[in-house]
Each structure stands twice: as structure tokens, then as C-alpha cells.
Amino acid sequence: MRKPLIAGNWKMNLLVVDAVKLVEGLKPLVREVSGVDIVVCPTFTTLYAVGQALKGSNIELGGQNCYVKDSGAFTGEISPQMLLDVGCTWTIIGHSERRQYFKESDAILNEKLKFALASGLKVMFCIGETLEERQSGEMDNVLRRQVTEGLKGLSEAGFDRVAVAYEPVWAIGTGVTATPEQAEEAHAFVRGLLKAQFGGNVSDKVRIQYGGSVKGDNARELMAKPNVDGALVGGASLKADGFAAIVKGAI
Ligand code: PGA
After folding, report:
1. Residue 100, H or E segment
2. Which domains, ranges and CATH numbers included, belong to the chain?
3. Residue 150: CB within 6 Å of ligand 1?
4. DSSP 8-state secondary structure symbol assigned to residue 179
5. pLDDT for 35-56, tens place per residue?
């Protein structure tokens, strides 16, 4: 049985005061929850304050991205070491917004994944097809490429600290959620890819989160599917009660 993983991706939202308020509101709502890994991924500028507020709670802290060096002349970048330094245990890598707006390729994402893991972080590695790719019948090829290239070279042990987030781009921030059946079909396909590339031990243990317009009222039926092991939540993670409802949908 894979332990559900529910993460909030706050994206480029919230100033320090509101970020701290959000987690102060969230903590009591999920305090009694066990058997679920809960993570919030705030902006870089709020990580430290949120990390302080989360001390002693059952909520982990994550970054939304990081670079492939520890330090140096890389203006505007953040290293895994810096995320660890402010209390992060996780980072997201390869979110579709990074792929789309910041032109991050499978090759750089593979490098980022390996560097973050080697630095000691756990990684939520995002994949997913656009609407155009789905409609033109390219979905399987896109997911295959993202898995093959993105996860290339990982060891079986490395997968203890990797979760894959399947996020169909057409469902992100649109209010259009994949149906539980569509999610299950894609997740089963991705698990099959993992099995073919890395073997059954890996495909059995890797958690595959669903992301794309997850809310309190659709989370439970999505996560009831056998291959859906949690959620990566954008918009709905910005409200404590909404995010707590999703966390409870995983129990
Ligand atoms: P959304 O975003 O829940 O707002 O659709 C999900 C994501 O981008 O991770």
C-alpha cells in the first residue's frame, strides 16, 4: 500500500504575512491526520517564515524548483542546499509552467532531478500532456518521452525519494478536472512505463499524484482509484479549509 502524498503548490502567490497565516490555519485542521504525507510548497521568499511556522507539525516544506549547483554565479537561481537550509525536505521539479514558460527541457529536468536527490531532497517530478497533444493522439508518446528522458539514470534506491505527479496541462488552473477514469488510465499507463524502464519494484513503490483542478469535492473519488496515490494541488491549496478537505479525502 502506497502512502498518499498531498502537496500544495502555491505557485507565485502570497506575501509572508498571508503565507504564515495560511499554514497557521492549516496546522490545526490536519493535526490529527496520520497515514498521509502532507507538503506545502510556498514561494522562495516565504519559505523561511513558513518553515518556522511548521516546526513540530505534520506538514513538510517544499520548494517549487531548484538549480543544479550548490552555489556560485548563477543569478536568480536557488540551490537544493538553500532549500534544505530553510527546512525543505521536498522540491517540485518539471512543473508544466516551468516547461512551458521557462523552456525547461527533459534533459535539464533530468539533471535537476538527479542533483536535488543527490543533495538530499525528495522530489515531486511533474509530467503531463497538453490538450493539443491529447487531441492529436500524442499523449502516450509525450508521457513516454517525459518519463524516459526525465527519469533517466535513476537507481532503484533513488525512487524511494521520488514521486511522479501526472498533471494534464489542460486541467491545470482551468477548473476542468480529469475524470477519475481518465486519471486512472493515465496513471496506469505511467506505472507501466516505470515498470518497463525500471522494473516491478520501482513501479510498485513509486507514488503517482494527480494534479489539475483538484478540490475538496473531487479529491476523494480521484484518490479512490488504485493508481492515484495523492494529489498536487494548485489553486485549492491557497485556502486552509479547502486544502485540509483534500488531505482528508486521502484517508
Ligand atoms: P491547479 O494547479 O490545482 O490550480 O489546477 C495544479 C498544479 O499546477 O500543480
Report:
1. helix 96-101
2. 5-249 (3.20.20.70)
3. no
4. P
5. 999 999 999 999 999 999 999 9
Span 213-244, pLDDT tens digits? 999 999 999 999 999 999 999 999 999 999 99
Task: Establish whether residue 235 lines the binding site of ligand 1, counting it when its CB lies within 6 angstroms of any ligand atom.
Answer: yes
C-beta separation of 85 from 117 below 8 A: no
Report phi then psi at 162, rounded to 5. Answer: -125, 135
Q: Longest Cα pair distance anywhere in the chain, in angstroms? A: 48
What residues contact 67, with CB distance under 8 A and at least 6 apart? 74, 77, 78, 79, 80, 112, 115
Helix segments in 120-239, DSSP class H: 131-135, 139-150, 180-198, 200-205, 219-223
CB within 8 Å of 94: residues ≥ 6 apart: 104, 109, 112, 113, 125, 126, 127, 146, 150
Nearest Cα residue to atom 3 of ligand 1? 234
Amino acid (one-letter) located at 193: L
Rounded to whole angstroms, the Cα distance separating 130 from 137 reads 11
